[in-house]
Amino acid sequence: MNTKSILRMNQGHGENSYANNSSLQMKVMSKALPIVKDIINDMFVNNLSLEMSESFNIADLGCASGPNTLLLVTEVIDTIYNLSNKNLQILVVLNDLYKNDFNSIFTTLPSFNEKLKEKYGFEFSQNCFITGVPSSFYERLFPCKSLHFVHSSNSLHWLSQVPKNLDNKGHICIDKACAPNVFDAYKDQFYNDFYTFLNHRSCEIVPNGRMILTFMGRSFPDLLNDDSCYLYELLAQSLNDMASQGLVKQDDVDSFNIPLYAPYKDEVEAIIVDEKSFHLEKIEISQFNWDPLDDDDNNNKFDQIRSGINVANCIRSVTEPMLVTHFGELISLKDVFKIYANRVANHLKTKRTKVVNLTICLRKI
Ligand SMILES: C[S@@+](CC[C@H](N)C(=O)[O-])C[C@H]1O[C@@H](n2cnc3c(N)ncnc32)[C@H](O)[C@@H]1O
User: Fold this and answer.
1) Residues with Cβ within 6 A of ligand 1?
2) Global model pTM greater than 0.90
């Protein structure tokens, strides 16, 4: 099933006022979906223990509640239907944090089920079960050996917390201008979080079960280049501009940091090796323009102003709750993201920088 038909099937699934952000996430996820299909095919063809199971149990971690939430479910159901294993029951568990709007997902399920019935017939559709588990994926979520396949997209670069005792004045996460100890603190937090994540999943996934994870990464081991993290450095600079105009307090800017870390692929590989529960089958790196609506690198009429606004909309949708919690309701997000859009446009004049994503495929040993 291609991305367009998945989108058609999900039509009517929730409103998302931040279309730019979901289209970037959609691009990232759609890179991983063919891999999901291949891996599931491979699991059914080669894995005898699965043939013995009455149900195929899947979890999507960090599912959110927007137009992309049911993409994975749709793809997995379609893949299994085409494997002509019509009697198998499919359980899909959607996970996100407690504050996620699970109700809006559940509200769309009756129409989603109707579409399954139309497309695959009554009997097959009655064997598909969708449920939700609200909690952090840095905790245990499922019983031992209860899952065959785990997926997570656009989520694991979010840490469980900002590293403790951080002195990162003028910045809001890692960047080439940060002090080395700030870089180390973020790197250590990612190590601990990702190790914990793997360790919990290793209890929950059956032997030979698979996991496909896509998250933001860096293209270089050091911080001397401008890919994923620089998006947030420009936000730090915009908040500093706001402080110098007296629109927010400098102390508030200095104490604001976000729990985000984009690892280099070797760091991820090292944690997988240290944790010892998974075999790394594949690691792929993909890159997308910062502006999710800019697909044409050869476009001579590239409009940096438009792209600056698109990127600002995207980053606003991700950071707005954190900004409001830290700075209070009175912060003018319109001003912050106007300054930010200009800064992004100025940067894009000189360089069409990309966001880097890592997709990793793991097999439970
Ligand atoms: C950018 S959205 C990705 C949504 C969807 N997977 C996609 O690719 O379009 C990131 C999601 O990860 C969730 N998330 C972040 N940290 C999490 C955690 N520790 N446990 C569970 N979900 C988490 C957020 O609440 C958010 O809904």
Assistant:
1) 25, 29, 61-64, 68, 95-97, 100, 136-138, 153-155, 158, 160
2) yes
